Model the fold of this input.
Amino acid sequence: MKLFFLCLMALAYVAAGAYHFINPMFYKKIMPPWLPAHHTLIYISGVCEVVLGIMLIPEATRQIGAWGIIVLLIAVFPANIQMMINFWNRNNPYLWIAIARLPLQAVLIWWAWLYTR
Done:
């Protein structure tokens, strides 16, 4: 079962990272305005997600990949906050999803942490 969830996590990060290149405007909408070079950061985070997702598969790189994902999840947390702010300001009916994403980050960090040992 642990292998199944490892593969699921790896696939999820590779897919999410690839989506940065397929639809970068999705991510541009949630970039905090105080960050510079939005497009560059979107592409860098996409590459990081793909590489770190792939690194989860081989045992030799799994720990580094899992720690990298934890760092990445912390680094992109301001985008999740910005998404919530944007939804709040626009009275978006899906505000609840943006709010739910905030504690979900802790769950995703915990899930990655399981593979740091």
In short: The chain has a mean pLDDT of 96. The chain has one domain: 2-113.
